[in-house]
C-alpha cells in the first residue's frame, strides 16, 4: 500500500490550496478515504472522510463550508480542496485508509 500526498505549501490567510493523494497497492474504489492533520505539539485529527463511492462525506466542524473532500476512483486519487484558509489550519496533512502517507505541509501565514 502506498499513499502519496502532494499540493501543500505556504499560503496567505484567506487563500486556497488543493491537496491530492495518489493511492496504489489496494482496491482504492472499495475503501473509504480520509484526510487527517497534525499541528505541532497536537494530536492527529480527522479533517474529512469520503465513502468508497464518493456519495457520503463528513467534515470536522471547524472546516465545514471551507473544505471539500472528493475522489476520482478512475485515477485512484482523493482530493482536499481548502478555501478561506486560516492560520489555525497550519499542519501536516495526511491521507489515510488505515495506512498512512508521508504527509504534506500546509502553512497559512502572512
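-> sequence recovered:
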Amino acid at each position: 500500500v502506498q499513499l502519496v500526498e502532494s499540493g501543500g505549501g505556504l499560503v496567505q490567510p484567506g487563500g486556497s490550496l488543493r491537496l491530492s493523494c495518489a493511492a496504489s497497492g489496494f482496491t482504492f474504489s472499495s475503501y473509504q478515504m480520509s484526510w487527517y492533520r497534525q499541528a505541532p505539539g497536537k494530536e492527529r485529527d480527522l479533517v474529512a472522510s469520503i465513502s468508497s463511492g464518493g456519495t457520503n462525506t463528513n467534515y470536522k466542524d471547524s472546516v465545514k463550508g471551507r473544505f471539500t473532500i472528493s475522489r476520482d476512483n478512475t485515477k485512484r486519487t482523493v482530493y482536499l480542496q481548502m478555501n478561506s484558509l486560516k492560520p489555525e489550519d497550519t499542519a501536516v496533512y495526511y491521507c489515510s485508509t488505515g495506512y498512512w502517507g508521508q504527509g504534506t505541509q500546509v502553512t497559512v501565514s502572512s
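Strands lie at 2-6, 9-11, 17-24, 33-38, 45-50, 57-59, 67-72, 77-82, 91-96, 104-108.
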